[in-house]
Amino acid sequence: MRVGDIEIGAGDFVTMAGPCSVETDIQLISTACHVRSAGARILRGGAFKPRSSPYAFQGHGLAGLQMLARARERSGLPVVTEVMSECDVAMVAEYADMLQIGSRNMENFALLEAAAQSGKPILLKRGMVATLSDFLRSAEIVLENGNPNVILCERGIRTFETALRNTFDVSAIVLLKQISHLPVIADPSHAAGCRDLVPALARIAVTAGADGLLVEVHPSPDDAWSDGDQTLSFADFDEMMVSLKPYVGLRERRNDPVHAEAIAMGEAQ
Ligand code: PEP
Ligand code: MN
Q1: For the stretch 6-36, what's the b/e string if a residue is b when 16 or more beta carbons lie within 10 angstroms of its beta carbon?
Q2: Where are the alpha helices (DSSP H) in 118-192?
Q3: What is the sign, positive or negative, of the torsion defined by CA atoms of 65, 23, 222, 57?
Q4: Neighbours of 242 (CB within 10 A)
Q5: Ligand 1 mutation pick, 187, 214, 218, 231, max ligand atoms within 8 A of CB
Q6: Element (H or E) spanning 44, and its range?
Q7: Phi and psi torsions of 48, nearest 5°
């Protein structure tokens, strides 16, 4: 599928990055330009934030969408941002190149239908307690509403484990790639909940066959208005992108039939 002139699921590995919340023009534009220089292809930032607490920052709404549009203009990166209500779909679609449906809304069928009908590509995040068949059913609602452009995003699920924010279900990536034709990306930031783990989970996601990543990045993560603990600094992001290169290279060779055979033979020995 395509977002602007970027193909996702066709072989290239596509990183989407940006702050959890759109805060200010300076924060967003500096992040957009930085992540682009490090190899990200799509800018991600939230204008409507589904926060666990009603007292936390809920996003700038329309003003945030306008900041995203300005950051797209300055950086040249297409923009993905979350839409939380079917009432906002038309407004968000006016500014965004792709609509994100968040975990908490994976089964909001009215929202899925309205988002699908906008015609924009949809980034669908797995619900925290969704099985893979629940997840695929939600994707099918989008497809059935005439929109074939859906990306599945594994972002960690709730389990009995409390050491991390969520449990990264890497097997979901492998299985979804086998049973579905849709592109699959991973969000190691929300899976981990802590920034030190994000690069390792990102490398695991590439190895598992993911088509891309969604990563939270901020100029000063400790001052971020949301999800600072799991957010990478510019330097952390650069280091992660460099560390991903050999894994992405191997993945691309795997997609090339000549090399795939050699790699399979090497693994069998
Ligand atoms: C987000 O992407 O910032 C977000 C709120 O993610 P999730 O829906 O996966 O919790
Ligand atoms: Mn977040």
Answers
A1: bebbeeebbbbbbbbbbbeeebbbbbbbbbb
A2: 132-144, 170-179, 188-192
A3: negative
A4: 12
A5: 187
A6: strand 42-44
A7: -115, 115
| Closest ligand to Cα 106 | 1
Mean pLDDT of 15-36: 98
Number of domains the chain contains: 1
pLDDT above 90: residue 48: yes
Determine whether the shortest distance from the Cβ of 44 to ligand 1 is under 6 A. Answer: no
User: What was the pLDDT predicted at 51?
Assistant: 83
Q: 248: domain range?
A: 2-268
CB 239 within 8 A of CB 13: no
Q: What is the mean pLDDT of residues 96-114?
A: 98
Q: What is the mean pLDDT of the chain?
A: 95
pLDDT at 11 over 90: no
Q: Which amino acid is at 234?
A: F
Tokens of 160: 């009995």
Q: What is the pTM of this model?
A: 0.94
Q: Domain containing 54 — which CATH number?
A: 3.20.20.70
Each residue of 165-221: pLDDT tens digit?
A: 999 999 999 999 999 999 999 999 999 999 999 999 999 999 999 999 999 999 999
Dihedral of CA 4/6/7/8: which sign?
Answer: negative
Distance of CA 46 to the CA centre of its chain: 12
Q: How far is the CA of 217 from the centre of ligand 2 (A)?
A: 10
